[in-house]
Design a protein that fits this description.
The protein is mainly alpha-helical and about 475 residues long. About 65% of the residues lie in helices and about 0% in strands. It has a two-stranded antiparallel ribbon with strand order 1-2. Strands 3-4 form a two-stranded antiparallel ribbon. It is globular, with a radius of gyration of 23 Å. It holds the Pfam family Mannosyl_trans.
């Protein structure tokens, strides 16, 4: 526990640095709407201290404390109104709560930092509990300085970490105990089945809540369900029937999606148009310079926002390749299953995330936070992690410095300045590394120790940081 506390404190220091970086764009004075002055729009790009949190104080009804989604909607081509937000509902609720005591964008950033810091510290503590010294790839990660308070992604990251913590600490299956009945010890005897059920419930609830914060954690339900259905080793398949394993996997999937639906249902009933607007906004978002995905650069110079035909083509390709990449990761997981007898849900989940980040039409800088738990929990070579941090920093710094040049009218071509070159390094460097990480994750072993029969056993804290 001392190490967990130390890691949490170190993560706290990283988060303080991250907040200090964003706070450079705050104030020192404010206009009538609560927007920081002077020269806010120039400073956020020039000083690389931009955050979506501070930016969205104006334009989404946040400054007017409008409760999200209930009375809002979407006007084509890209306008949200009446309190609708481009985020899933639980993130919208956190945004609304954080804005209630705020009168300026600086106060809103400060209040928003509280739940985000809690999410970051919780993630660091649980990762330290699971993985020992490797957890410092999260707690001390440069992307945490750049993006912890850039957007609200740490809420979904924490949900994913909680799910991984529960699943990686599952006791071995107990005959008769994992499907609702008492184990061989009889009623009142703690044979591990009750602990197992509780942790499966925790994992399902965490992924469901994660999907209501940011949709991507719902991807991980499929590999976990396959892990449960296919059996956790030969011993599990010997003592539990196929029907029992199917019930376990389907119950897990139903629980996760049920929790997400329960979070969304009140908004769907009270204000369906405002709730649906967030999806309309994302679908209609053009693939442009701000999306930072491979598609804009792969289709240059035809990929300008006003080229409707190319925009439609890119959106189709992004959708098809994203789903194909997700299914490929799931399918390749069966290769290890046939060899080892256990479906590698954690490795497959990490590979699915790589495919999503590579092919999705939007690759915002803060999405790097999504990868950090998998850098900790899977034993991949350190060089891959350092390389990804490097190209990510090139993107995170280069993009905003380029926006500053474009805004001032200074020469900003690829051959005129370093910042557009950094962006290209970031876009294509991330793309190449995501392909490599897709393969590396699928081959990687999880940090927690496995039991003798190949099942995911109780976690042993390890101090291995070499990968």
């Amino acid at each position: 526990m001392v190490f967990v506390l130390l890691t949490t404190v170190l993560c706290g220091v990283t988060l303080v640095l991250g907040f200090a970086n964003k706070e450079r764009c705050v104030g020192p004075t404010y206009d009538a709407s609560g927007r920081s002055t002077p020269d806010y729009s120039t400073r956020v790009a020039r000083d690389v201290c931009y955050s979506d949190i501070q930016q969205l104080w104006i334009g989404r009804g946040i400054d007017d404390h409008v409760f999200p989604y209930v009375s809002g909607g979407f006007r084509p081509p890209s306008q949200l109104y009446g309190g609708s937000l481009e985020y899933p509902v639980l993130t919208g609720v956190v945004i609304w709560l954080s804005a209630l005591p705020a009168d300026t964008d600086g106060q809103f950033l400060a209040w928003s930092a509280i739940p985000l810091a809690v999410a970051g510290l919780l993630s660091a503590a649980l990762l330290a509990w699971l993985a020992g010294l490797r957890s410092w790839w999260f707690a001390l990660a440069p992307p945490l300085v750049l993006y912890a308070f850039h957007n609200w992604d740490l809420l979904a990251v924490a949900s994913t970490v909680v799910a991984c913590w529960a699943l990686l600490r599952l006791p071995p299956p107990v005959p008769g105990g994992s499907d609702g009945g008492p184990g061989p010890g009889g009623p009142g005897v703690d044979d591990g089945s009750a602990v197992r059920r509780r942790r499966l419930v925790v994992a399902a609830v965490a992924l469901g809540l994660g999907g209501a914060f940011k949709l991507y954690p719902l991807m991980f339900v499929l590999p976990v369900a396959l892990f449960l259905v296919l059996g956790e080793g030969a011993a599990d398949r010997a003592v539990r029937s196929a029907a029992a394993r199917w019930r376990s996997g389907l119950a897990f999937a139903a629980g996760a999606f049920g929790v997400c639906l329960a979070a969304n249902l009140p908004f769907m009933v009270v204000g369906f148009r405002g709730w649906w607007a967030s999806f309309q906004f994302q679908w209609s978002r053009p693939i442009d310079l701000t999306t930072n995905s491979i598609w804009f650069w792969a289709f240059r110079p035809e990929s300008n926002s006003d080229n409707a035909a190319t925009q439609a083509l890119m959106a189709q390709w992004a959708t098809v390749t994203t789903f194909a990449g997700l299914l490929l990761a799931v399918g390749l997981g069966f290769i290890r299953y046939r060899r080892e007898g256990v479906y590698p849900w954690l490795a497959v989940a990490a590979a699915m995330l790589c495919a999503y980040l590579l092919f999705n039409k939007v690759h915002s800088p803060q999405f790097t936070l999504w990868l950090l738990p998998f850098f900790v929990l899977l034993r991949i070579p350190v060089g891959w992690i350092l390389a990804y941090f490097t190209v990510d920093a090139a993107m995170g710094v280069g993009f905003f410095r380029w926006m500053y040049l474009l805004g001032t009218g200074a020469p900003a071509g690829v051959y005129d300045a370093i910042s557009p070159q950094l962006v290209l390094i970031g876009v294509w460097g991330r793309a190449g590394l995501l392909v490599a990480l897709f393969v590396a994750f699928l081959r990687a072993r999880a940090v927690p120790t496995a039991t003798a029969n190949g099942q995911a056993g109780r976690t042993k804290i390890t101090a291995d940081s070499s990968g």
